[in-house]
Design brief:
Elements lengths: L1 H17 L28 E2 L2 E2 L8 H19 L1 H8 L1 H5 L2 H5 L4 E5 L6 E5 L7 H25 L3 H21 L4 H6 L2 H9 L23 E3 L6 E3 L13 H7 L6 H23 L3 H4 L16 E5 L2 E6 H33 L6 H23 L2 H4 L4 H23 L3 H17 L19 H11 L4 H18 L4 H7 L1 H7 L3 H14 L3 H4 L8 H10 L5 H8 L7
Antiparallel strand pairs: 1-2, 3-4, 5-6, 7-8
Helix pairs in contact: 2-3, 2-9, 6-11, 6-13, 11-13, 11-14, 13-14, 14-16, 17-18, 17-19, 19-22, 22-25, 24-25
Amino acid sequence: MHRVRWLLTLGWLVLIASLFYDPITPAFTQPDNFASPFRINLEQCVKIRETCLPQEPYSMTVLIWWAMIVPAGIFILLVFGHEFWRRICPLSFLSQIPRALKIQRKRKIVNPTTQEVRYELVTIGENSWLGKNHLYVQFGLFFLGLGLRILFVNGDHKALGYFLIFTIVSAILIGYLYAGKSWCNYFCPMAPVQMIYTGPRSLLGSQAHTTPKPSVTQSMCRTIDSKTGKEVSACVGCKLPCIDIDAEKTYWQELRKPGRRLVQYGYLGMVIAFYFYYYLYSGNWDYYFTGAWTHERDLLSRVFDPGFYIQGQSIAIPKFIAVFITYFVLLSITLFWGLILEKLYRRYTVWRKKPASAEQAQHVVFTLFTAISFWTFFSYGARPSLNRLPSLLLLGFNALIVLVGAIWLYRTLSRTHAQYNRESMSTSLRKQLQQFPIDPTLLDGRSLDELTSNEVYTLAKVLLGVSQQVRLQTYTGVVQDLLEQRVTDPSQSFEFCKKLRQDLQIQDSDHFTAIQTIATSNPELLEAATPRSAVSEDTETLARTVAKKPTNRTIARSISPHKRRR
């Protein structure tokens, strides 16, 4: 993968260089090159309002970037998912240069007791302002970048080149300032787009939560162990939960994060506004679909021109203001409808006497908006290049887009958080059920490993209903196994195992009895359940408390003071 990433990165750098000097692609646009589908038609009049744009050979590098590479990226996200994209993304790769060179910024820490000095990598805290509000920052950068694209980056080759170089330098700088994949997680404007199109899981993505732990999953930060020669985790806990480790866990836990609805619902408005503005500005669709905008001249000098041309009339609002007005209006409309649809869906489920939680309603509407965004994007996104293909190929591509979006929608729409939790616990439950002498004939000749996660969960509920002591022992074993596998950590285990306690008829107070049992036999799990740099204050307090042989009550206060019921 390092070789593949180097190859893709070098290809990207060559494309950037071609934005400044391109002696090759203009030959494909020559009017007498009848073998090329990109040749210009000197008799065609592509208008901006009442003026025909000059038709002359042009460099195709901007067209290649915006109408080929970017649409390919969106398709990859929905079909192959985050794990594939993060492995091939050149920008993610370049942001790790400071780590590879071992020149990342470190902070000095002095032990006040021993005066021992040590240095550790700097990470962005989950409780910091950026840790809580990074979605606003990333979506704001996306909003600004999409505006700059229409204003002058779109058709100005050098402007696009400088724009991409600035982005590369920014990624490398963030990689120097902060450890891990801080650029990808907290700053990259494409990260919200990636989050939208991946959803809880992509069409062909793997399911990290069902992978036996500990293991290196998906696109987790990794390195090679010098002793064994095998891949090992290089995670520094720059973000928890981390999409690189478990994409679906991140999806469910961040549904309520500040800015999440703005990103999901606002993105559809941005997609519509971006393409619709070409019509609002020029007064026709030819300006966009012919790709004339990829080689338009003097864009920077036109930012003060009238920004709208509607019904043959110019509206005296400068273009640099009109662009953002269009974005804001469409973004507000789709955000409003997203919130309304959540409420309507919940009312619908109540009417059907199958009430849905606020979380599930949000997930359903999110899924619908993602599918609509995908279909809307490909109705316009690659058309300046696709429309030059033979009709049969174009129809085939259209059918592919509709089919892929429909399959993703079908698989994702009914997904639930509870289903994810059952699948996450299935490995641990199977280990506990191995202790029971189960007759294979009762399982239709199948082994425990061949049962689905729902079947394992149901079987555990039935078998463990026999004895309270067995239920408590099994619950303790499941919690310990989840901590060992780092599926959850002590501070989150109370809430994570809530549904399991209900199904096994385990009291909330029994959770702290289980934690005390684990603390007695394996105290290291209470501190080692998460990377050291990401250990929460509650977890550290718990570890110190355990060392003093705590009671159930003190453990309860340490783990989840805001969730105590009694």
